[in-house]
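Q: I'm building a small set of examples for a reading group on sequence design. Run inverse folding on the following structure and report the sequence directly after it, with nothing in between.
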């Protein structure tokens, strides 16, 4: 348990480092108006924090740097979030209420809007469709052995996938497959559908039946249970890296961040962690992010789940990905407000309010 003095010094060190990106000297902290502590007193407290693993010192003559543990403590216990400005709140609410092609149109607009309000990347993991109910299945012949499968659910989604078959197939055969599957499986949730498909394929080996069970099984495995990952902000990151004032360190960090954004399977697994608890979560460093050490070092994710509606689907996740020293006072409330706005726009309980936050250790 930190004393109030230790918390205040840690806050100043973290916020100074966020602003400058450089090791923080005791003299810089002691010069803060109203602190009322000498440089020697600050240095003593910083040494205590270093012993606790909350600060590190690159070398003897340098100032201190916050550790991953100190960032978690800062966000979870010390941070005083700044509520989003009225203009930003209005932009977010308008984005979350937008309509377009399909039920996830607002997610893409909200992701783009949030990325535009920060210099970081924004990620949205769309709600999984495992609770959606199957209405019908259709197969369309595109070529002799090429088929387009359409899966229509009560959530409004029409999921599709193109298949290459081992042998040519006629449209009338595909129509028969679609009618039988729709008749037998209509009304099942996609989660239950996957279980039934596994049972049926094991039980029935007739060639014509293997064809349509395999078609639908592959489609549900690929599309039915996985939420879409939406990424925005890459252009902003590239622009910052190419700016004349960008240092070599900033350029290297930016391109490293872009590499992380390509690790979509890892990002989905990370964002899935947020579905276990409510509130805003901080993931920082290799162990927390679940990404290789050399790639994740120096980066953090601030994320929150949003609800898709009254028991219709599982929640989705909204997140900001940036450097460890991202502006948490701005980002945490923005993520919290946007997640609540998305929930409200999709008919789920709750309205955007003043944010609370927690780290992945809560």
């Amino acid at each position: 348990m930190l004393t109030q003095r230790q918390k205040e010094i840690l806050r100043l060190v973290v916020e100074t480092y966020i602003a400058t990106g450089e090791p923080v000297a005791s003299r810089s902290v002691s010069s803060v108006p109203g602190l009322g502590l000498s440089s020697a007193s600050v240095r003593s407290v910083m040494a205590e924090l270093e012993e606790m693993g909350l600060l590190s010192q690159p070398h003897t003559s340098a100032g201190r740097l916050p550790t991953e543990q100190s960032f978690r403590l800062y966000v979870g216990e010390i941070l005083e979030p700044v509520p989003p400005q009225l203009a930003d709140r209005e932009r977010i609410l308008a984005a979350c209420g937008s309509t377009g092609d399909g039920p996830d149109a607002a997610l893409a607009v909200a992701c783009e809007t949030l990325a535009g309000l920060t210099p970081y990347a924004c990620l949205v993991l769309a709600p999984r469709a495992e609770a959606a109910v199957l209405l019908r299945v259709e197969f369309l012949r595109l070529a002799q052995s090429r088929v387009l499968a359409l899966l229509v659910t009560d959530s409004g989604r029409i999921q599709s996938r193109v298949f290459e078959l081992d042998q040519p197939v006629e449209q009338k055969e595909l129509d028969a497959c679609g009618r039988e599957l729709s008749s037998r499986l209509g009304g099942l949730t996609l989660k239950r559908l996957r279980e039934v498909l596994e049972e049926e394929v094991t039980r029935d080996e007739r060639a014509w039946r293997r064809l349509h069970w395999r078609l639908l099984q592959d489609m549900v495995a690929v599309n039915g249970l996985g939420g879409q990952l939406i990424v925005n902000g890459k252009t902003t990151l590239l622009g910052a890296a190419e700016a004349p004032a960008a240092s070599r360190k900033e350029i290297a960090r930016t391109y490293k961040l872009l590499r992380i954004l390509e690790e979509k399977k890892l990002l989905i697994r990370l964002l899935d962690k947020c579905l276990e608890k409510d509130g805003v979560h901080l993931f920082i460093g290799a162990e927390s992010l679940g990404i290789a050490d050399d790639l994740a070092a120096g980066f953090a994710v601030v994320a929150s789940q949003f609800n898709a509606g009254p028991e219709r689907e599982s929640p989705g996740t909204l997140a900001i990905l940036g450097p460890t020293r991202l502006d948490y006072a701005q980002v945490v409330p923005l993520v919290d407000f946007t997640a609540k706005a998305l929930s409200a726009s999709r008919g789920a309980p709750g309205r955007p309010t003043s944010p609370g936050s927690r780290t992945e250790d809560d």
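The domain at 4-66 is CATH 1.10.10.10 (Arc Repressor Mutant, subunit A).
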